[in-house]
Amino acid sequence: MDIFGVPIQALMGQLMLGIVNGSFYAVLSLGLAIIFGVLKIVNFAHGAFFMLGAFTAFLLGQHLGANYWVALVAAPIAVALFGMLFEWLFLRRLYGLDPIYGLLLTFSLVLVLEGGFRVAFGSSGQPYATPEALRGTINLGFMVLPIYRGFVILAAVLTCLVTWYVIERTSVGARLRAATERAELTQAFGINVPLLVTLTYGVGVGLAAFAGVLAAPIFHVNPSMGSSLVIIIFAVVVIGGLGSIMGAIVTGLGLGVVEGFTRVFYSEFSSTIVFLVMVLVLLIRPAGLFGREES
Amino acid sequence: MLAKLPSRTAALTSVVLALGAASGTMASNGFSDDVVRIGVLTDMSGIYSDLSGEAAVEAVRMAVEDFGGEVHGVPIEVIYGDHRNRADTGASRAREWYDNDGVDMINDLSNSGVALAVAAVADERQRHAISNSASNIGLTNDYCSPYVTHYTYDAYSLAQGTGKTIVEDGGDTWFFLTVDFAFGIGLEQQVSDVVREAGGHVMGAARHPLDTTDFSSYALQAQASGAEIIGIASTGADAINAINALSEFGVSPSQRPAALLLWFDDIVSLGLDTAQGLLINNAFYWDADEGSREFSERFYERTGRMPNMAHAGNYSSTMHYLNAVEAAGTDDPDAVSEKMRELEINDFFATGGYIRPNGRMVHDQYLWEVKAPDESEYDYDFLRLVATISGEDAFQPLEDSTCHLLNGG
Amino acid sequence: MHLRSLTLPLSIVAVLALLAIPFFPQWIYLVFVMKTLCFVLFACAFNLLLGHTGILSFGHAAFFGSGAYIAGHLVKNYGVPFELGILAGGLVAALLGAVIGALAIRRSGIYLAMITLAMSQLVYFFYLQAPFTGAEDGLQRVPRGTFLGVIDLRNDTALYYVVLGIVAVGLWVVWRTVNSPFGQVLRAIREHEPRAISLGYPVARYKILVFTLSAGLSGIAGALKAIIFQLAALYDVHWHTSGDVILMTLLGGMNTVFGPAVGAAIVAALNHYLDPFGAWVTVITGVVFMACVLAFRQGVVGELGRLLKLRRPSRPEQTADQPARGESQP
Minimal Cα–Cα distance from B34 to chain A, Å? Predict the structure, then answer.
């Protein structure tokens, strides 16, 4: 059976790969959405933190002999600490101002990080080996999937669901949401809001770094690996609806699939389709797919 | 990096000093403003900085030092600039160099957009420009000039070298993974022509946007095509990611990737595990013979990296330019241009190389295969020679060139 | 001392300096000054939206690039004279601005910015695919032509004065717009949109109008750049250029009329004079921007004004309130 001349089996394969890519988008946009929700800052450095995660994993392996599994935990934590330091030193001076200043500051950070890594490690990048346990392929009937790609889906979806659960269903999350809605009032209840904000930024960039480590064995580890990703992730978050955690996750996965199919039918357009979707969504549903519109 | 700063400051001061001595003042000895100034216009800070960048500047400096630092008693000076992969930035820097800073020759010119723009400026200002790392054959066709030389390779030689040799070797069905840019599409078309001419078939192509990270979808499409050869018509990060995906998805043993423009640095970056078995067309390999080894080891000591074909081309072309200046006894662009086209090039880079009237430097090209990890015996022992393509076969026949200089125009 | 009292002498000095530049080629390179002038016009035009109406467009490269491509294409391939080419570039950009503006202003804040970004990405895709642009090789060898059929623009000095004149007219239009009743309404929209609506102003129409004007002037800036460099390239329509102009505006000061001009000059100079630092350029640029955001939040000109204690009071505080405009509503 064919659809527009493409066998349905092949399409199933593309669907699967779309979900893999969507998993990256989901983790990244989740982090961006959390940061925007609490800090009201558009974290332009999100792609750079993604790159930082991959590079940290690479460096941990190179200099400390840390294997993939150690890196998968240690790299996001290290990057999160760095992110928190950045928030604590610089970013917090901009709260309450037009969000454009946060955008500019995080953009400057992109220049420093990408430029710095290019000076240190060159522009062509470094290889990162797939962990021993996840090598090989698995035959799904309609396609042969590298086991590692399957692992990416599992790890990403699990991480997203845990994050969603913590924010929406636990007391920590409740405080966080309270701080988002009414910062002064939350502070008055004895909750350390500035600390909460710093932690949130840490979690957000930690998620980006986590995606970076996941990506390291598949995509080449190079200084500009996150630079073209940023605006796509922005689009995902906006389509999902700013502030909606579930929106970011679902839209991420969905757009991965849409992009995957575009690669089959109109490949040249595949990096642009997400923007077409965004225009259409915003014109029809002003607050995004999952955002609530308040008048 | 910091250790090199003094030379940078020197470059800066030389620019500043040069500002005083504007161009156009031809001294009595036949050398404009009593210095032969070479500008290396390259990508210092961007995505191509590994392919050319600081190492390209170093290659040119080496050539100048090996030449003796002066010609007919006139000192030779090297300055450099960053075009940031933007044609306007490159063109503006080139203009300033020619107009204000007395630059006699601009070298490297990575990035085709920049190279074309600078070629236009060079033609207008009647000064020399040599491109070593750009591929666009427009430089020796519609945009040709007596002052512009295209030295190391071009898209045509890539197509001939890889396409023809592989088809003759029996790989006659092709599928392309092409970057959706003029460079990729042009390369795909040229190789397709070569393949069809040699009796092969093109089964299809997938054109991906620039900066695509995930090539798995294209790997599947390539697999489904059933083609024997998967031609990768992109370079840098795109090509690296494409090769990674093809290797990850275990393209069947009957299929073989051929990278149409892969740099030596890309292979270093990919690692032999992934890159093994790839066929690549490069005009230079450090370990090819005694001469190339001698140069490469000196280069490695200075830059910490093995030279790729553009670096070697930067050195060789600078040397050739200086030889031409010496032979001409002046740095007058017309006289030098004549000598450059007259003198033969014989060094570690080229044997019997010569420059055609349209600016094309003609020399042998090589097809290499990347070794498997267990075949590699020492550091950077990466390539095995598969075929040598003579310069006459590798480059566009003169009668096909649309260069206006060829019909007396 | 007041900045306003300094404005007149300062502008006279600036104008004299600009007029004198071609006589000192060894000090500053003319083509570099011309390029900077293009960005000066671009940034000031952009600030009509950001600073004076409170609309953040993240897609202005679409207008700048369209101006460059249309002018370049017409002049190169159809032999259209210089003046008409520039004008056509501006007109097409203005039209595009009207269309994108009409779509974008139905939303506000971040959403508006994202719609403009998305539309500009579609425009980028168009130019990438269109055969006449030459994709990444660029639209090369655009002839400079003559001005009014008399002055040969291949001469840099002649071209410089023509560019200076056109940019001056463009800046005058910006200045007139800001200091007109129309500009006052724009400020009213920026400060409190619902009130402007309740006062009976057709706010949507005003916004589309200023969008069109800003886009048109940006297009002229792009068209000039195409003629100066004799090429139009993909970078002109790339979202990086949209980011660059935001940067210039903020560095200079978005609450001033000509602050963006200073910002444009700073960015151009950073790009031009940092070459000796080789691979460190990107890092240094990043650190400079970071320092500017943290230390001179109102931009160089804005801070200068504050130091001279001259400005209408309380503007910065109002800026601080602005996030509430778009962000509290989703």
Answer: 35
Give the integer Cα–Cα distance in Å for B155 and A13.
34
Q: Is the dihedral of CA B243, B246, B252, B255 positive or negative?
A: negative
Residue C17 resides in a domain: no
SS3 C225: helix
The alpha carbon of residue B173 and the mean position of all alpha carbons in its chain are separated, in whole angstroms, by 28
Could you tell me if residue C89 is inside a domain?
A: yes
pLDDT at residue B359 greater than cutoff 60:
yes
Q: What is the CATH number of domain B156-282+365-394?
A: 3.40.50.2300
Tally of structural domains, chain C: 1
- Per CB-CB distance under 8 Å, the chain A contacts of B271 are 127
Does B84 contact A at CB distance below 8 Å? no
> Measured between CB atoms, which of B1, B82, B96 is closest to C29?
B96
Distance from CA of B53 to the nearest CA of C (A): 8
Beta-carbon separation of A125 and B244 below 8 A: no
Q: Provide the ipTM.
A: 0.92
Question: Pairing relation of β-strands B36-42 and B74-82?
Answer: parallel
Interface of A with C in 70-109 (CB under 8 A): 90, 93-94, 96-101, 103-105, 107-109
d(CA A132, CA A129): 8
C154 Cβ under 8 Å from any chain A Cβ: no
- Tokens read off for B118: 């600078």
**Structure tokens belonging to residue C253:** 């000061």
- Of C221, C211, C268, the closest CA to residue C66 belongs to C221
pLDDT tens-place values along chain A, 295 residues long? 577 777 888 889 999 999 999 999 999 999 999 999 888 888 999 999 999 999 999 999 999 999 999 999 999 999 999 999 999 999 999 888 888 899 999 999 999 999 999 999 988 888 898 999 998 888 888 888 999 999 999 999 999 999 999 998 999 889 888 888 888 888 888 888 899 999 999 999 999 999 999 999 998 899 999 988 989 999 999 999 987 889 999 999 999 999 999 999 999 999 999 999 999 999 898 888 988 765 3
Mean pLDDT of chain C: 89
**Quick check: B221 and A264 CB within 8 A?**
yes
Task: Give Cα separations from C196 to C106, C190, C253, C257 (angstroms).
Answer: 16, 9, 25, 22
B213 CB within 8 Å of a chain A CB: yes
Instruction: Please name which of A156, A21, A131 lies closest in space to residue A71, comparing C-alpha atoms.
Output: A131
Topology of the domain comprising A16-284: ABC transporter involved in vitamin B12 uptake, BtuC (1.10.3470)
Whether the model pTM is above 0.95: no
Residue C191 maps to a domain: yes
CA distance A93 to chain B (A): 30
Within 8 A of C263 by CB-CB distance, chain A residues are none
Interchain contact B221–A (C-beta under 8 A):
yes
**Residue ranges of the domains in chain A?**
16-284
The burial class, CB within 10 Å (0-12 / 13-18 / 19+), for B347 is middle
Q: Which CATH architecture has domain B2-153+289-362?
A: 3-Layer(aba) Sandwich (3.40)
Provide the CATH number for the domain around residue C141.
Answer: 1.10.3470
Instruction: Answer yes or no: do B265 and A124 touch at CB < 8 A.
Output: yes
Domain ranges, ordered by start, for chain B: 2-153+289-362, 156-282+365-394
- Cβ–Cβ gap C141/B11 under 8 Å: no
Tell me whether residues C278 and B181 touch, CB distance under 8 A.
no
